[in-house]
Amino acid sequence: MSTTTGIPGFELAEELLLQELRHLHATRNDTFLHGSPDALREHTARTFELEQEYLRRHPEREVDPRRTRSGARGEPQNA
C-alpha cells in the first residue's frame, strides 16, 4: 500500500499517468529548492511510484544511446 496521496499509479489511465509525470517533472526543481521536508518527501515518493508504473507498462521503451554511460562518454554505440 502506497503512503503517497493521489490515485495509485496502477489505476491511472495511460494519458493521466503521462500527465501526472509531466507535472511532477515540471515541479521538481521548485519543490526541491523551496518545499518543506514533507513536501519534498511526498514529491519524491509520488514521482518514484509513477515512474515505476511507467517502466512496468513500458519495459521495452526506447533508450537514447546518448543517455547511457558509454554514450555520454562519446564511446561508439553498437546498434
Automatic annotation (TrEMBL):
Compositionally biased intervals (Basic and acidic residues): 52-67
| Stretch list, region Disordered | 52-79
State one Pfam family annotation: DUF6158
Q: Write the protein's name.
A: Uncharacterized protein
